[in-house]
Amino acid sequence: MNGADRLCDVLLANGIDVTFANPGTSEMHFVAALDRKPAMRCVLGLFEGVATGAADGYGRMAEKPAAVLLHTGPGLANGLANLHNARRAHTPIVTVVGDHASHHLAFDAPLTTDIESLARPMSHWVGRASGPESVGATAEAAIRAAETGRGVSTMILPADSAWGPVEAAPVTPIAWPVPPLPDAPTIERVAAALRAHGTRAGIVLAGRSSYGAALETAGRIAAATGARLFGEVLSARTARGRGRVPLERIPYPIDLALAALKDLDVMILVGGQEPVAFFAYPGKPSRILPESCRVETLAAVGEDEAGALAALAEALDAPAQAAAVPVAAPPALIEGLAGPLTDDAITRVVAALLPENAILADEGLTSGRSFWSLSASAAPHDYLMIPGGAIGNGIPMATGAAIACPDRKVVALQADGSAMYTVQGLWTQAREGLDVVTVIYSNRAYAILRLEMQNVGAGHFGRNAERMLDIDAPALDWVSLARGMGVEAARAETAEAFRDLFKAALGRRGPFLIEAVI
Amino acid sequence: MNGADRLCDVLLANGIDVTFANPGTSEMHFVAALDRKPAMRCVLGLFEGVATGAADGYGRMAEKPAAVLLHTGPGLANGLANLHNARRAHTPIVTVVGDHASHHLAFDAPLTTDIESLARPMSHWVGRASGPESVGATAEAAIRAAETGRGVSTMILPADSAWGPVEAAPVTPIAWPVPPLPDAPTIERVAAALRAHGTRAGIVLAGRSSYGAALETAGRIAAATGARLFGEVLSARTARGRGRVPLERIPYPIDLALAALKDLDVMILVGGQEPVAFFAYPGKPSRILPESCRVETLAAVGEDEAGALAALAEALDAPAQAAAVPVAAPPALIEGLAGPLTDDAITRVVAALLPENAILADEGLTSGRSFWSLSASAAPHDYLMIPGGAIGNGIPMATGAAIACPDRKVVALQADGSAMYTVQGLWTQAREGLDVVTVIYSNRAYAILRLEMQNVGAGHFGRNAERMLDIDAPALDWVSLARGMGVEAARAETAEAFRDLFKAALGRRGPFLIEAVI
């Protein structure tokens, strides 16, 4: 066997059985090794950003890493934007980047690049195999770092480390350390703060605290203390829908964020960092919490959020149940719906019809902004956003989520401009037969930038600005684009047409795209 | 005025009047400043790799930089693969990457990244404005580095440097240093080597030496000494066609390269570096020149290749004309052509019908490999390849070349797998009405990787390898994809249908795509 075989064995022994791949020549021995391992599912992306974004969506839903296979520095570069999103989402990913054989690097062949320099900004851990016998230990270090640090590990695999011989030997799965819990003084300090400040205290639920048992426990803590529960501006994964503990979303627009948080004396962080302004604006603060607001960390990234919240609930003697959430009726719009299609009508239809246990992948940006509030009254679902703000996350994220959860319907709300960044992901949905309904908000503009231009005081646009902010000439034909990649598609131009199309799309299996012209 | 206005003034004062852009929020003040400068042509790409690849194609043809406008670290990351190609092509480019306002960086907002670390591997020069008054000098340093070093300059523009006020002041164009010529001993040493070794000497013409007057001079030197003239494995730009000084292309497959170069005693480099194996293979050398072959540099990158060759020709007392090139008849296949379409038939039709003074952008990879030899008998044209080997260069390169040379027909030979990386470039061709005919070699596989799998000794492919090397299920429908982006398109499945379609496409203006099913 060779180094590449050892790498496959280590991945599989540790439960990593999906590889999102876009290989090149320097990875051919790894491809050959994967080919000898039918237990590994290899999913091809026709662009590296599809592979990394799919690994992000997969990792968020599966709570374990996928592997990603990329080709030297340029291949890694193409995948970096979605590794950035994964890093901000604290998604574990093991990225394997092939490189030239080590003896070839000194010759500066055309594809030679400084892979470490490219990898570091988007990686929690970066390492390089130093020979075939080192591959196993390097892979184990990469997996351990990805899982314990909830981040992106980038392992560089020189071709000679892949093709060189290694002794056949059994691989032992990694013995996982128990994720740390906060110490007693931290629990007591946080409990005291919550007791003292009541509704002037907030808790930001990030990482793995915004769904599952952790979210339920947070609801009990809120019931005990009156604390406000927040989701991040762009949250990696939140359990939403009827009966779920509701979170306030920290608004993206700076003025709304300042207003939403202005009464807080203390903010408790669980599984994430202090929320700040997404961008800087002249004369506006970077910090969105009040100057006087104290920040306490209950559980840092990689710590046991659910356990920390349980300990806190116990210290607070919290009730056994969160406050009952008034079960809102589904948005009552479906029947009388008519007229020209608007982004609001789209989100209302989606909220009303979303099937139980769906996964909602939201890169709707300006058009999708009303979905958060409506999603509280939708059927229970998981709601994924783009925590890193690097557009082009949506289609790949939906793709990866569908692979992690083959029995759940995935609905992607997708801005048109952002969709184009990783449009190739539709092909992977077709190839793998994934159950994803993609709704394109076809507004034919970078609408968010039009708003931001107004924010910077540029009211009137001339030709150059129009040419950089509008994408209407020519208009993208999303039905053609989708069909070109083997995905069935249709266009809706009225609210009732959209409702009927969306209902029909939900009623079938496999990928489907709706171009919603607004 | 503000820092962004100053940046525009410095760019325009130095002849940089095209900006390939994909902006985001942190660049809104720069967008507003560009909007106040109608002399600047702003060309939008729907993905950053389109913008950087177009700047590469533009710079190769215009012999001056375009500006590229990108959005923070993830935006830069998306553009890096084609900056890599530009770096290897020695194309001058001035990349402007917006960043958060400097005071905002400490808050680690979601889009915060280490832009310098990302930029360095693909950049000749990296700098950051340190306030609005520094923008002018930083931009001048970026332009100077790009032009004198023939490379990628990456200028980081924090939002507060863009929006902060500067004193209005006239901008003086940069006083360009004369590109250096080799010293007399170098000329004499190279001349002596060529005299001594005759046909056992070679000259690799790279950079700006493989077209124009430099190529003609090289032909005179070959006539005087018998030296063999080589083009790089993947050359940035070569003048080809009937009557042009012919170059031998250094082959890409390692065994062919070794065979082609085995008789050389000395190799002279002009405007580039020593050719080496593209990839390493077990048991094969990295160096493709014979062990005993001496290497001499006549002109390094950024030096005056044409002047150096002229001085060398004079030292050699070379004849006034290169040896007459036997004018081959155009490939005689067009009339009798029939039957199923093959990659060979495609390249023959293209070589036969290519109009005078066309630009041929070649990312045909395995399918296009026969074009080089046929191009010698085609009408005179400029031939562009992908020197960095990072696929996804082709469509953007053709786009940028068409903007640099609006009166010339651009023909893009494009492998299907590679085309998908930056397929969004078709939209820019439609928006700008560019005169580009794209020929997609639709073989529905990463054919080059199938060959490489055989090279590594993996003869039989199982399911995992098939799933990573074939892109046939579903087949991409290139006519739909092109139409989805506003580009007219048609499919050819026989040789005669392709010939007729290609002829028709050449006879009209504007972008057209032919899916050539092989």
Automatic annotation (TrEMBL), chains A, B:
A Gene Ontology molecular function term of the record: acetolactate synthase activity
Record key words, sorted: Thiamine pyrophosphate, Transferase
Record InterPro entries: THDP-binding, Thiamin_PyroP_enz_TPP-bd_dom, TPP_enz, TPP_enzyme_TPP-bd
Annotated Thiamine pyrophosphate enzyme TPP-binding domain residues: 380-515
Region forming the signal peptide: none
CDD domains: TPP_BFDC, TPP_PYR_POX_like
Membrane-spanning segments: none
GO biological process: small molecule metabolic process
Family named by the database record: Belongs to the TPP enzyme family.
NCBIfam families for this protein: PRK07586.1 (NF005760)
Protein name: Acetolactate synthase-1/2/3 large subunit
Protein's organism: Kaistia hirudinis
Organism placement in taxonomy: Bacteria, Pseudomonadati, Pseudomonadota, Alphaproteobacteria, Hyphomicrobiales
